[in-house]
Amino acid sequence: MQIIKRVLKLTLPYRNRVLLALFLHALVIVTRLIGPMVTRSMVNDVIVGGNYDLIVRLCILIVALALARAGFGYMRVLIMERVSQSVAYDLRTGLYNHLQGMPYEFYDKNRVGEIMSRMTGDLEGLRDFLGNGIITTWDNFISFIGALIFMMFMSWQATVAILAILPVLSWTAFRFNSKIRPLFRQIREQDAVLNTRTQENIAGIHVVKAFVREEYEEELFRNDNQELMRKHLKATYIWSDYVPMMQVMGELGTPIVLLVGSYLTARGMMDLGTLVGVTGYIWMLTNPMRMLSNIINMLTRTVTSGEKLFYYMDLGPSIREDTDARSPSEFKGHVVFDNVSFAYGSNRVLKDISFEAKPGETIAVMGATGTGKSTLVTLLGRYYDIQKGRILIDGVDVRKHKLKPLRREIGYVPQETFLFSDSLEENIRFGRPDAGMDRVRQAAEVARADEFIEHMPQGYDTVVGERGVGLSGGQRQRTAIARAVLIDPKILVLDDSTSAVDMETEHEIQQRLNEVLKNRTTFVIAHRISSVKSADQILVLKDGEIAERGNHAQLMALGGIYHGMVMDQMTSAVGPGGGTDG
Ligand SMILES: Nc1ncnc2c1ncn2[C@@H]1O[C@H](COP(=O)(O)OP(=O)(O)OP(=O)(O)O)[C@@H](O)[C@H]1O
Ligand SMILES: [Mg+2]
Questions:
Q1: How many other CB atoms are found less than 10 A from the CB of residue 86?
Q2: Which domains, ranges and CATH numbers included, belong to the chain?
Q3: Of 36, 291, 340, 388, which sits with the fewest C-beta atoms within 10 Å of its C-beta?
Q4: Nearest CA to ligand 1 atom 4
């Protein structure tokens, strides 16, 4: 009930229109309710009473009622459809915006396919309820109440007789509800599973094909698909067990009323017109009972869909801007990590990290894979909150910064390059949509992306990704660097972002970055010594702690992990035997 209430609340902005639609529909029902009274008059006054003048008037009334019913019904459909589409629109937009506001953590835990399933299937479920469900429920409710009143007015005995079936019907409906409800939930969940599988398979199709696992993937899909079918069928079986039962009980109304009515008529306690008229209400009274199963079915679907959607809506972003958050008047790019510890859930990744990066310095972060290098730099933009210590940017704790201005000052080239299926120009311009073409070109030059872009068939207008031109790994990385350079950040983060670029090009990019991004604090994560050699400070992480720090010369003198890495890379470059080949 809570969920249904909440779904209904979504229509609050359109309440006048909803009320109008309900009112119009009530009028439709009234025209139906008047029908049997006309019939009664027809029997009593015209056929039995011989008042033949009345017949024309009654016929006109019947036609007028039919016209009114059609007219009101038409308006009601238009209004309600408009409302349901508007609510769906609001919900879709609201949910989308809400999802944009969710932190990294949310996307670590929820899979794309599942989110998609919520955004489409569940949302459509709610829309359908708002478009048809409300009216169906209302229709049955008023028909029932109206028929009850009108019938009571004609013959209370017949009404009481027919109401005898009500408790049995309600009990059956209740049983039906409790059986089918968990299944609807399972169906929605299985649907999400299938969606996730499809999405991941398509996203990972290269891997699937490379490892010739198509059959395995098909098998997995088949199983999930079969499971979905099984659940649908199970719901159908429950449905088909109960629905005929409820229908038969509803149909019992007619013989009951006829028996009681004929008895009363024979005794002279009911006139013929009333007997005929009363039968006109049987359908209106029992149909809502029969429809009860449909309504429960629909409400149950709505509740399961609503639960899922509201679950997302209620997940507030765990990373929120402080109420007294502020932004420095000017960002300088001064970064201090003060005893920072961080864990993903219970998985401790960084322990007591302390260092200082002065504006304009280059900090290199090295270390074996999985030691927390990428994690360290994602903390700069407060994509996760740390458990211990503080991170100061320009003297202010990141938790006290206004989030968007802070993130705007960080040019982030993530380890996994992501480009939108849009033109190269728009991809580079992504962070500053108002930047002119000259800035796009300049950024591309710095990242050494200009050359390959100019060789593309449509140059900067070349569309990448879906249905567009494919790019090599190094080309993608350079485009991503250009995107970060364009925003002219105070802090530049290069997370392994030249790993797919040859050493010579990498060197050139570094040179150009030094020219353009003077006074920018730069974080470089890399495995190649050549990428980090010139850094002001090199941090070597080991098991989440800073094991060594200093510049190249100092670390070489130390003769520790860094020294070992340099030696390893030299011998592998030179090869065993020692001699160089120039
Ligand atoms: N989103 C996440 N949720 C939970 N754990 C994570 C997440 N990202 C990384 N980890 C874990 O945190 C640890 C550090 O990961 P991180 O990506 O920071 O390593 P890295 O040093 O960048 O490694 P690489 O050199 O391979 O890029 C790993 O053990 C990883 O399993
Ligand atoms: Mg990493």
A1: 17
A2: 8-314 (1.20.1560.10), 331-409+490-504+522-582 (3.40.50.300), 419-488 (3.40.50.300)
A3: 388
A4: 344
